[in-house]
Amino acid sequence: MTSDNHTRNRELQQDARAWSAFTGTKYTTALRQMGSPLAQGLLGERVSARHLIAALDNHDLIGARGGNPRLGENGFSSAVPWRFNSETDFIELALITDVLRMFTPIPDSATPEVGSYSLKHTAEWFLSPHCSYVSNGRMIWAAAALGLPVAHPDDSGPNLLIGVPEREHDYVHRMVGPGQTQPNADHYRPAGYTYLQTVLARAAAGEHITGGWVQPVPVAASAPFHAWLILQAGRDDVIGDLASDYSAGVRDSDHRIARTPDDLLTIFHEVPHSPEAYDAVVSTIAEWMRTMPSAAPVRTERIGGGAHNHGGWGAGAGTVERYEYLCPCGDGEIIEEHDNVPGFQEHDVRIDCAKCSAEWRFAGGRPVRDWRLEPVAVSATI
Fold it and tell me: I need a surface site. Which of 15, 177, 210, 251 has the fewest CB within 10 A?
């Protein structure tokens, strides 16, 4: 037996003895739980039973500190004692801990906003069928032992506030909750969400997960157009109205983040909108390009076309290319054509839509294959 294995086995035995004494479980049953693949820490270090037990006495908010218990099965200041089933109680606490680990940690200075009762339902749905019930008290217990910020709301009920990002929690809640409207975008998906789903199934099948998962360091991707658009919310004009709707859609994960004007056009083709809303998009892009003259013009999505061989006209064979792209309003096309036949080397791009022909133009100084568009209104004065 290696030194590492000896140390691990000793820690499992110490935890099993502590859990056995705390819950009244047989030592062998407790030891079996300690060694379960589901209790090995799927998103971090193995959860220590001794640390969990100590949190109930030492934690600043929920700790009894030698007095009467402050946390019970139903939550904070609950008179309902803990109910242990002697078979899976520790495993369930370990799994709840991993659910909490998948979220991005909030700063210690931030105020927790997610209620423990809502979070306990999210954990139940995420962990099903491996854990069918999560009590309010155990959710608080796991969060406190993990070191997440935990706070008491203004009321005196059994629910506490737990320090996980509100938007990330809303994403998971809607993804796994029965009858929920699932998000249409993933910018608030927790970093550990997909990985935990994968390894949870493997651990449930008996596999001991090795290698570990490391919480990635959040990196803010540059999105100057998105940042500018968010700042326009609240303006008393069509651009302000559009920016407010866009901001709400990002907040509620109804659509992706528009990092560029191209993305904004794509979003409006994906969600229902009025003609007036599209006109506001054009005005918004025009103002952005006037504000940021170095901003890249718009390139729309390719929707068809391709290349085929051509026998030529006596001077040799070649190819002919034709590509169709969505026009900005979505009702027509942008046609890009290339004749690569000896003696007939022609390249052309045009807007095949009356509305877009009046509102958009090709940005100057670009080859046909690298065409891009800008609103005609870009040249207008602000």
Answer: 210
Do 196 and 232 fall into the same domain?
no
Number of domains forming the structure of the chain: 3
What's residue 289's pLDDT? 95
DSSP letter for each residue of 196-258: HHHHHHHHHTTPPP-S---PPPP-----HHHHHHHHTTT-SSHHHHHHHHHHHHHHTTSS---
> How far apart, in whole angstroms, are the C-alpha atoms of residue 142 and residue 160?
12
What are 323's strand-pairing partners? 305, 336
Query: How does DSSP assign 273-311, residue by residue?
Result: --HHHHHHHHHHHHHHHHH-TTS--B---EEEEEEEEE-
Q: Are residues 66 and 123 in the same domain?
A: yes
Q: What is the pTM of this model?
A: 0.84
Q: Write out pLDDT tens, residues 27-37.
A: 999 999 999 99
pLDDT for 7 beyond 60: yes
Q: Report which DSSP code applies to 342.
A: T
Give the DSSP per-residue string, 162-208.
E-S-HHHHHHHHHHHSTT----S--TT--TTHHHHHHHHHHHHTTPP
Same domain, 67 and 90: yes
Is residue 107 pLDDT above 90, yes or no? no
Q: Which of 204, 239, 260 is the last residue of a domain?
A: 204
Confirm whether 213 is domain-assigned: no
